[in-house]
Specification:
alpha+beta, 5-stranded antiparallel sheet, two-stranded antiparallel ribbon, 3 helices, globular, disordered C terminus
Length: 185
Amino acid sequence: MGKCAQTAWVVYGPPEPLCQHDARPLRPLGEAMNVLRAAVCLSLLLSAAAISAQSSNVCPSLPADSGLQWQEQAQADFVLCKASTGDGREVLSLMLTARDPNLPLSRPLRQEKGLFAGESLYWYQPDLGGQQPPGYETRRITVVKFDKNRYAQIALYAGDAKELGALQSLTQGMNLTPAAVAAGR
């Protein structure tokens, strides 16, 4: 048949006779299909991850008009939800866990009364060891036990008193998703 034989291999480019001196990469048709299949699966997986990042399954839903977006970090024993404004400023963090955060909340730092997941709470100024950095007056933190061995630690980083009131109202209206409660986080 001669030096070069025709074959059913897929070549990057138009099929040509293959010779031993031809050094172009060759792939059998089945292997090329596997590569194509893997690329399609990877693109679907990345699309699903992007959609998941936009709409969290565990963090409570945020009102569409709030202008906030969750960033979720899930670990084996807790979920951390961080709400940021359109310019990337974090204004609220929510940690859901099965363990008591055992955060000391000093009565002299107690501020406003509120609600979360149907449970009463008090908002506290964080204890920063006597330091009062800019914006300290409008920072708040609290811990809520909302079910047996289920806790929420909430921190607010408001820019001013008006934003603080809005964030406190926002947390008061939050409902935990069934996934978060079922996971025992």
